[in-house]
Amino acid sequence: MAMAQKIRTQKLPAEVTGEELYTIFGKYGAIRQIRVGTTQETRGTAFVVYEDIFDAKNAYDHLNGYNVHNRYLVILYYQATKAYRNMNTEKARQKLEEIKERYGLSGDLEKEKDRLLTTPRRE
User: Fold this and answer.
1) A Pfam family this protein belongs to (predicted)?
2) Using H for helix, E for strand and C for coil, what is the string for the chain?
3) Fold of the domain spanning 6-84
């Protein structure tokens, strides 16, 4: 299984806060970000992003099955490919085309970047 700096926590109790998670997960390394799920679909989950991959592994090794408010945490390495599998790419492609049209961009983004970032010289 490939490791990552980002881990996903499941089975969180509803009353757990981001501050509590920071206290629990911060013992294992520097944390870049914690995101606690608040919607119906994401409630009970959180993402913890560590600065270092080894800190994420250390937290995974120590906290999987850890008891928080009488619930046992399930810790998983985050796998982006699973998240993108369900993504509607056609809808995203249409939105991208709308944005390109709105800002007058062509298909060649490298050419557009050069056009937009170069400033004319004053003489």
Assistant:
1) RRM_1
2) CCCCCEEEEECCCCCCCHHHHHHHHHHHCCEEEEEECCCCCCCCCEEEEECCHHHHHHHHHHHCCCEECCEECEEEECCHHHHHHCCCHHHHHHHHHHHHHHCCCCCCHHHHHHHHHCCCCCC
3) Alpha-Beta Plaits (3.30.70)
Q: What angle do CA 34, 59, 9 make, to 5 degrees?
A: 50
Name the residue ranges covered by the structural domains of the chain: 6-84, 88-117
0.90 exceeded by pTM: no
Confidence of residue 120 (pLDDT cuts 50, 70, 90): low
Summarize pLDDT for 74-104 with one digit per residue, the tens: 999 887 766 566 667 788 788 888 888 888 7
